[in-house]
Inverse folding.
């Protein structure tokens, strides 16, 4: 493993500025997830209005979205490893916010697919840039907790999308809901440009991390078995979580006859709130150890338990019992985020941090975000002739199995890190 001696000195940023930066990055992740997940609570009215099938919805929301997300993530990360990261992040936020507002204009499957692909392209630069900035502001012993706090913004984004999105759609319709929800992102983009500092500007030119050649950097990452297992874990956990989250409102509406605003309120409260707790607790479960192997071991076991527990809510005869069981299962199954990305940031060269996150996000986007929601739609249609309205239940159980496999992959990453021996984190 690498012995890293060059990183952005923490004292150049300052404690107050670092805390303010975490706050604005939290807000960025909030809107990133809000704009992505708003469509989940609006699937049923969109499907009825545009006369689409489950497979078409799954394709637009999942695979086609993921193609653009994944395809743009590597170029976005290379820019983040070279250019002004706050400025880049402001551009990304502005673009995906405008594309979210464009959802108000779609009138066909083709238009829906194009707009969702645009949202994916804009959102592709969010997490690589965020992770790189967090690693510049905080040392390795604090990154898991900070990434957990920043990542919790995504869970609150889900909560707000489900509750406010469902309530708003019942009053103004789904088109105006997208327009209203997308607009605040433009203000966030302006604020973050003024609030965030680029630490590289405060360093002498000979102290700044210099990106290594692209092909050599990617080859080094893929030759690291721990990095590969961490990426596999991220793909499986993301695919399972996104597959479930995208179709959860539709499941409750079909199975329990919930109206859209009721489904949005309760699922936003439970899924979003539990997700936020899971992100933050996951950072603490990962601990503050300088040993990357210890960062992933305990979360791996918890995620296996969480994935198994996620099968229970879908089998309940009453929606209240389903929500009650969904709460702890969602908390535990979200422990993976901090463990995966903090460990990745701690074991790669500082000049390749954004790239490392982007490679993982590329796999997550194409194989996780892409296949998860799309597979749920495909399996739901496939089993519909035999299982009727319960076909969606079968598809969601498959996604819970993905999360269990993700926890097993974290255990494999732990074993790989142990075989590689101790990693020097000095100066990281």
């Amino acid at each position: 493993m690498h012995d890293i001696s060059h990183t952005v000195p923490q004292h150049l940023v300052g404690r107050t500025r670092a805390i303010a930066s975490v706050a604005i990055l939290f807000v960025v992740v909030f809107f990133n997830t809000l704009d992505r997940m708003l469509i989940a609570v609006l699937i049923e009215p969109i499907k009825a209005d545009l006369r689409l099938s489950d497979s078409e919805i799954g394709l637009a929301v999942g695979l086609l979205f993921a193609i653009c997300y994944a395809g743009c993530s590597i170029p976005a990360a290379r820019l983040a490893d070279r250019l002004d990261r706050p400025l880049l992040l402001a551009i990304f936020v502005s673009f995906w916010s405008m594309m979210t507002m464009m959802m108000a204009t779609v009138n066909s499957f083709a238009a829906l697919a194009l707009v969702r692909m645009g949202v994916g392209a804009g959102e592709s630069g969010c997490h690589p840039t965020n992770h790189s900035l967090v690693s510049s502001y905080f040392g390795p012993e604090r990154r898991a907790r900070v990434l957990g706090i920043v990542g919790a913004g995504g869970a609150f984004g889900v909560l707000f999308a489900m509750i406010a999105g469902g309530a708003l759609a019942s009053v103004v319709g789904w088109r105006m809901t997208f327009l209203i929800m997308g607009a605040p992102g433009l203000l966030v983009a302006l604020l973050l440009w003024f609030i965030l500092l680029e630490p590289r500007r405060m360093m002498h030119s000979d102290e700044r991390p210099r990106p290594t050649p692209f092909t050599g950097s990617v080859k080094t990452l893929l030759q690291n078995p721990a990095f590969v297992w961490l990426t596999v874990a991220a793909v499986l956990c993301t695919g399972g979580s996104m597959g479930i989250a995208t179709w959860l409102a539709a499941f409750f509406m079909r199975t329990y006859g919930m109206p859209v605003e009721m489904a949005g309120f309760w699922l936003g409260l439970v899924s979003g709130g539990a997700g936020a707790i899971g992100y933050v607790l996951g950072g603490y479960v990962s601990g503050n150890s300088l040993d990357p192997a210890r960062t992933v071991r305990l979360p791996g076991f918890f995620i296996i338990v969480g994935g198994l527990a996620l099968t229970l809510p879908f089998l309940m005869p009453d929606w209240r019992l389903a929500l009650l069981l969904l709460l702890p299962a969602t908390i535990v199954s979200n422990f993976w985020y901090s463990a995966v990305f903090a460990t990745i940031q701690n074991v790669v060269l500082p000049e390749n941090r954004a790239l490392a996150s982007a490679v993982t996000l590329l796999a997550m986007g194409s194989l996780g975000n892409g296949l998860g929601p799309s597979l749920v739609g495909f399996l739901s249609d496939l089993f519909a002739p035999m299982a009727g309205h319960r076909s969606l239940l079968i598809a969601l159980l498959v996604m819970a199995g993905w999360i269990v496999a993700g926890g097993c992959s974290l255990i494999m990453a732990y074993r790989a890190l142990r075989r590689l021996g101790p990693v020097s984190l000095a100066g990281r």
Remarks:
- Residues 1-11, 424-428 have pLDDT under 50 and may be disordered.
- Residues 10-199+214-420 form a domain with the Growth Hormone; Chain: A; fold (CATH 1.20.1250.20).
- Residues 200 and 208 are 6 Å apart (CA to CA).
- The chain has one domain: 10-199+214-420.
